[in-house]
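Side project, low priority. Logging it here so it doesn't get lost.
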Amino acid sequence: MASDLRIHLPEVTPSTPGSERMFGAIVEIAVIDAATGRTLLDTLVNPGCPITEIATAIHGITDAAVADAPTWDKVLPRLKRITKGRQVPAYNADYDLGVVLADTDRAGRKPGHLADGEKWACIMQARSDWARSRRWLPLGGGHRALGDCQAARQVLLDISRTSQARRRRSPVV
């Protein structure tokens, strides 16, 4: 059974100093169904700019790896199709939303429902709240889009299980 949640996580190449880019360009994106874990989208993306050495050191994605990958304007329609009418939780939702909107704008496309910030939810903030932490906690998904989606789903499952257990232990007033 499909859920109304689609976990979305991109990997990016950071913007370079002096660049007009506030957000880095997407080099990989994955989306999974939050209920089942089924992969709905998992692709490298040719960012149309060089991937920095720092970014490659983090996620392992090179210019050669994305050379034949689709560009954002080719990936965007599929992303829009699989997230339409759904909530889109992402580990760092504000940043991920900004990256998606920036790349969509650079591609000369319209973001449609993806521009609706109310449809995005921040798993990192939910996790920090759940853990009663004042700081954001690292995800630990290996810095590849699909692995990060799977790790973010596990965070949601952990929060849900703990919340359910707390409710069962709480006395009804």
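Brief comment: Helices lie at 53-59, 63-66, 72-83, 93-106, 123-130, 145-169.
Revisit when time allows.
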